[in-house]
Q: What sequence folds into this?
């Protein structure tokens, strides 16, 4: 049979979650493959990003069940069904569609359309907001929630709050959990962003991993790059610069030291170098271990720190000429 689209996987995956205390995604993918009677050849078929197509679509299904609050993250690489999910699992249908979930409070906001119109100069253009694509065929599948990424998000949110700022976590990351606390429930988390830009710009900003805010002012923006592809975070930064060329927000790319060369290479791509200002001129790099060590050293006086200390522990992203 043809490989099912991710919407066809939603109901069987939810039913599978209803019969298990916790769902390990690798086991769920195997179970879904058996459910749809896929052959080894079909299971090994890959998408344009080099990931097995069925695995990718199963992860998309998992992600949308999370957005619908029918399942929730439960440890590394696992989810578990919610009380609402148990109710939906009892529905006598073979397949859910995305439109079925629109009645669930908050679902529309978590999966807002990516295509928005904005003005750049005198021209109105349609922009694509990097985020979740409802087609389920994106080259970068939704894999297990990266623990390191969530840890650094939590660290930056806690640091910003202790320094006296309001903080924002990417809207689609609010259900992530670190040390037993949802990121969306950490101290000084803002429920909504100040509406100081057009719709497209705000939709880009609200997907940035972490923001520090003082009133209506964004003090710093952080993209955390711990996974295989770092491109989506850079696209958000680039879209922000393209739509608001005079924007004055310190932008930081936070990544493991082993990814430093990759981050610098991507930031200096010709595409990003044609922006005005160039992306490498306004983005700075912070290594995970440097951030963690400096915060540890400053524990006793964090509340007295100023945002300028970020410049001291970060590097400019411009490549040096040989």
A:
């Amino acid at each position: 049979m043809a490989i099912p689209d991710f919407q066809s996987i939603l109901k069987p995956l939810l039913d599978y979650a209803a019969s298990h205390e916790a769902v390990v995604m690798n086991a769920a993918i195997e179970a879904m493959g058996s459910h749809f009677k896929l052959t080894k050849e079909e299971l090994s078929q890959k998408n344009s990003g080099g990931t097995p197509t069925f695995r990718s679509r199963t992860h998309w299904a998992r992600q949308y069940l999370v957005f619908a609050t029918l399942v929730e993250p439960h440890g590394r690489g696992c989810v578990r069904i919610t009380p609402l999910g148990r109710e939906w699992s009892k529905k006598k249908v073979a397949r859910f569609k995305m439109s079925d979930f629109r009645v669930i409070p908050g679902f529309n906001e978590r999966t807002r359309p990516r295509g928005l119109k904005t003005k750049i100069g005198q021209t109105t253009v349609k922009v694509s907001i990097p985020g979740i694509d409802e087609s389920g065929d994106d080259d970068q599948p939704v894999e297990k929630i990266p623990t390191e990424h969530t840890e650094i998000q939590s660290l930056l949110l806690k640091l910003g709050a202790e320094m006296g700022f309001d903080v924002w976590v990417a809207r689609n990351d609010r259900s992530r959990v670190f040390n037993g606390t949802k990121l969306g429930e950490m101290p000084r988390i803002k429920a909504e962003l100040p509406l100081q830009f057009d719709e497209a710009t705000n939709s880009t900003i609200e997907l940035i991993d972490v923001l520090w805010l003082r009133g209506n002012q964004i003090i710093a923006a952080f993209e955390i790059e711990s996974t295989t592809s770092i491109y989506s975070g850079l696209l958000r930064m680039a879209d922000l610069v393209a739509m608001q060329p005079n924007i004055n927000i310190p932008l930081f790319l936070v990544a493991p030291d082993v990814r430093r060369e990759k981050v610098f290479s991507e930031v200096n791509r010709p595409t990003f170098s044609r922006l005005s200002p160039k992306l490498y001129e306004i983005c700075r790099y912070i290594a995970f271990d440097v951030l963690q060590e400096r915060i540890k050293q400053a524990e006793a006086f964090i509340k007295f720190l100023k945002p300028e200390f970020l410049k001291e522990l970060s590097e400019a992203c411009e490549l040096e000429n040989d």
